[in-house]
Design goal:
Length: 289
């Protein structure tokens, strides 16, 4: 029989990763006064049950972005922090379509071993019928958890328009959602905009040693570790290369999703970035420095 409950890993003091069957990872952390839950999973398990069990203080809930594999159980809370640029995805008239699209996620993950390693079924997938009250998660938001523990928010649009990362200097961890990982899909902005966002993260590199994205222990893998040390620099190298025309651009099925329609992507080091060649620098946009 496979594993039937998400795997919880202690990655730092008062800091836990909740691996939801290889499909998504949420994080719960706390200080002396408050806690913070980062993402709510893809909907294969009610992450609130685990967060309530782990966190001994009241906590806020933040979404790194609005995709369904990060917000699957957001309706378990009355209020959730999300960047306003991603609020439109959960307008009442869009919820039914979003729910149908979300159903394809487990089918994709089955190809990477999730259903082999875990005792789960597609039928248990949950997606909200309604959104909670969204609170504006914006550039410069700081969550003061008490005891000197403060978590900073940086807006890093690219994967979605409202994508954010969070930095916790107290444990020297970057929580990067889907903004800085080995398979970065730029679906919502220009390449230049994505570069600007990650340059802000680079400027804070003295505050973190490890980068945990929201998909550790991916698929059927039993490896639950931070992203490669070079991940941020590899992303920056690729983005700059796309903009200045020196990148080795491929047009083929993504190596990450074989057999899919051709996409434009670049691989370098530990990273692959998929992008829209018609959105390198948007009209009127100032080039990144």
């Amino acid at each position: 029989m496979g594993i039937s409950k998400p795997i919880v890993l202690e990655i730092a003091y008062r800091t836990y990763a909740i691996n939801e069957f290889g499909m998504a990872t949420a994080f719960i952390l706390w200080g002396t006064e408050r806690g913070l839950l980062i993402d709510t999973g893809c909907g294969m398990y009610n992450i609130r049950e685990i967060a309530d069990e782990l966190c001994p203080v009241p906590y806020d809930v933040v979404l790194t972005h609005g995709h369904g594999d990060h917000s699957g159980y957001m309706d378990a809370w009355d209020e959730v922090w999300l960047h306003p640029a991603d609020w439109d995805a959960y307008l009442p008239e869009k919820m039914a379509a979003a729910k149908e699209f979300h159903k394809s996620y487990p089918k994709m993950m089955a190809g990477y071993g999730s259903f082999d390693a875990y005792d789960i079924t597609e039928e248990q997938l949950h997606f909200p019928d309604h959104a909670p009250k969204f609170l504006p998660l914006t550039e410069g938001t700081v969550f003061d958890l008490g005891g000197g523990r403060k978590v900073d928010v940086i807006h890093t649009p690219g994967h979605t328009a409202g994508e954010v990362v969070l930095i916790d200097p107290s444990v020297r961890i970057l929580f990067s959602g889907d903004a800085c990982n080995p398979n970065l899909g730029l679906r919502a902005t220009s390449v230049n905009t994505a570069l600007k966002g990650l340059l802000k993260v680079k400027a804070r590199q003295a505050d973190f040693d490890r980068n945990f994205n929201s998909h550790i222990g991916y698929g059927g893998s039993n490896v639950h570790i931070a992203m490669p040390d070079s991940c941020l620099d590899d992303c920056l190298y690729i983005l700059r290369g796309i903009i200045d025309g020196t990148a080795d651009v491929k047009h083929a099925s993504s190596p990450f999703r074989p057999g899919t329609p051709p996409v434009y992507f670049v691989k370098y080091g530990n990273v692959q970035i998929t992008f829209n060649p018609e959105r390198i620098i948007d009209e009127g946009e100032e080039p990144a420095e």
